[in-house]
Design goal:
With 281 residues, the chain is an alpha/beta fold. It has two domains: 166 residues, Rossmann fold, CATH 3.40.50.300; 66 residues, Conserved Hypothetical Protein Ylqf, Chain: A, domain 2 (Orthogonal Bundle), CATH 1.10.1580.10. Strands 1, 2, 3, 4, 5, 6 and 7 form a seven-stranded mixed sheet that branches. Strand 1, helix 2 and strand 2 form a beta-alpha-beta unit. The relative contact order is 0.16. The structure holds guanosine-5',3'-tetraphosphate (G4P). The site of guanosine-5',3'-tetraphosphate (G4P) has 16 residues, from helix 6.
């Protein structure tokens, strides 16, 4: 499958992010808990060198709870402070203030030694498109103050959202670019709906999803669609039959079935699932 990536304005976005990072103490990086590796760009490690780091496992409501725990341990082992959140419902957000204080302990102590008391931690939210940055900022700040949309080139005057006396957030999130070069990353981001649908071949994508399901969540197809076979193409045909996806002449409409299957996955109707594993399983 050949996924076309969007081009060039990312250099500008990277430059803007470098400038913003100079202003902050803490990077709050959102990743998608269903694909914690594919939804991050390791460039942030260089860009954020020397800053305190927090990783939010966002959309944890859609991810496999057992693996949420494993991914938390994985990022903690890299030196990040981790919180599992659902930015849409607000679950997990309450813990963040406390974890920010722990993550920025050194800075707070350094300030205190210099006689600077009560200077708030300044933080910035970063993540790839669609990972939930605006939703997070809106729910965390408790009002509609995050700018929506992804416009990496747009000039911005930095505004700080004062969350409380010890934390300020840059109002505009930093947009990281997905790792264009890795096709597997592209497939996973396409499956979770993070890249533009129109550039994708839906039936090939559905086959990728089926192969993943057969391998890691074999009971799901049986439970939702009553499918027993393990052969991917037959599975897609069975999905089409189970969901009455028929074209005009009465033959199976596999594109429609592909769309339904992918939508069921994206909306969590197949259950909570994680597509990546901290160590090979
Ligand atoms: P971005 O700023 O990083 O680009 O992402 P944005 O906040 O626009 O969120 C992208 C989509 O992800 C939105 O869905 C949003 O509701 C959803 N989302 C964000 N956080 C969570 C979460 O923790 N759990 C779940 N289940 N969904 C989350 P959308 O379909 O674009 O909009 P809508 O249908 O919710 O209005």
């Amino acid at each position: 499958m050949n996924i076309q990536w969007y081009p060039g304005h990312m250099t500008k976005a990277k430059r803007a992010m470098k400038e913003d990072i100079k202003l902050i103490d803490l990077i709050i990086e959102l990743v998608d808990a269903r694909v914690p590796l594919s939804s991050r760009n390791p460039d942030i490690d260089d860009l954020g060198a020397g800053k305190a780091r927090m990783v939010l496992l966002n959309k944890s409501d859609l991810a496999d709870e057992r693996l949420n725990g494993a991914w938390t341990e994985y990022f903690e082992a890299l030196g990040c402070h981790v919180v599992k959140v659902n930015s849409k419902s607000g679950s997990g957000l309450k813990q963040i203030n406390h974890v920010v204080q722990i993550a920025c302990k050194e800075k707070i102590e350094r300030d205190r030694r210099r006689g600077i008391l009560n200077r708030p931690v300044r933080a910035m939210v970063v993540g790839i498109p669609n990972v939930g940055k605006s939703t997070f900022i809106n729910s965390f700040a408790g009002k509609a103050c995050a700018k929506t949309g992804n416009k990496p080139g747009v000039t911005k005057g930095n505004q700080w959202i004062r969350l409380n006396k010890s934390l300020e957030l840059l109002d505009t999130p930093g947009i990281l670019w997905p790792r264009f070069e890795d096709q597997q990353v592209g497939i996973k981001l396409a499956l979770i709906g993070s890249i533009n649908d129109e550039i994708l071949n839906k039936d090939e994508l559905a086959m990728e999803l089926i192969r993943f399901l057969v391998k890691h969540y074999p009971n799901v197809l049986k439970e939702r669609y009553g499918i027993e076979t393990e052969e991917p193409f037959h599975i897609l045909e069975e999905v089409a039959r189970a969901r009455s996806c028929l074209a005009k002449g009465g033959e199976l409409d596999l594109i429609k079935a592909s769309n339904l299957l992918i939508d069921d996955f994206r909306n969590g109707k197949l259950g909570r699932m994680t597509m990546e594993f901290p160590s090979k399983e």
